[in-house]
Amino acid sequence: MREASQSHFFGIDIGTTTVKVVVGMHDEARGDQISVIGHGTSKNSGLRKGAIVHIDETADAIINAVTEAERLSGVSIKHATVNINGSTIHGIDSTGVIAISSSDREITEEDRFRVEEAAAIVQLPPNQEIIQVFAKNYRVDGQDNIKDPVGMQGVRLEVDTHIVSAAASSQKSLASVMSKAHIGINHVTVSSLAAAEVVLTRSQKEAGTILLDIGAGTTNLVVVEDGEVHYVGVIPVGGIHVTNDLAIGLRTDLEVAEKVKLEHASLIPGKHKEIGVDIDNSRHSFNSYDVQMIVGARIEELFELVEKQLKTIGKSGKLPGGVVLVGGTANIPGLDILAKEKLELASRIGKVQNLQGLIDVIDTPTFATSIGLMQLDMFLTPQNSEPAGAPNQNVFGALEGILNKFKRKSH
Description:
alpha/beta; 5-stranded mixed sheet
């Protein structure tokens, strides 16, 4: 097995029930597009609602998924970009202000870094630590909606940011898990941001769009507008809750309920009929109407929680780009139709764009986050062919800016 080079990139999605790994590389034959050369999955029993509760079990799941991806790609995985999840993730708005030494001096990158640092000085809840800071827009002497102030002149520079934080204990648990799996961490981000990178078009990012990554234990959401991250949140409801509801409502065990969900869950109205699943040579039969009602009730509750967050940030019904759905639960037929009805926004199932290679298995909403993590691993890792700090149009600009700041501090 050959060692990974700077042309290989890795994303590891640590989910509540499954770990997914994607390996990609530059495809020079296709104009330097990303080509997937390996992927792996493994069941995970070490998380609860997105939070790591069993270090060893989670590490074993990562090792198994990584081993499968290494076998398929022929590349040794020693480091990767990973996601952090759980209800301890919070997003808050903050403003930073600094003075420029004189009105005739041009604003520099150093000034931009200083104002972002000023915005990051906030009072966080106990045990919370900042993961990322996203600049939404800058102001120079009162002139608003500036995307990049470098090169302008003024005496007062301001920035509006969205700060994403998570419990320090969650970040330490993630570090421990990756250490036990013998995988170094290149970058850490939230699931929804990684997925948004690969399924949202530039026009959607500019117009205003909410992406919902509905996983097993949590739903990660991100609101992107004017090309920047405006809000990040996590709702502790996901596909596991649908399974639990089916087990209770159908009076069956969890294994049967999970199979009913995977094979027969649907939100599209239809004729009532008998459906069934076979487990251990036993046939379990149910009425399709009961399944639809149980699944629909839980998904409606989820969308009500999403709508509540949109109202809190003043974006209810005000996102022209609509809602984009990814994650395993996005495979339920009719989910986009119900989202359109409940959120009163255009809705569609997210599809990964501009991807080549071994995508027959992973070209689904379930792998959007892991693919996004792999692409961010490429975008955020300096390449020999690019000057340090060169902007990449595929990356949310603020994410790259903060990354460059941390690199500058480390030198």
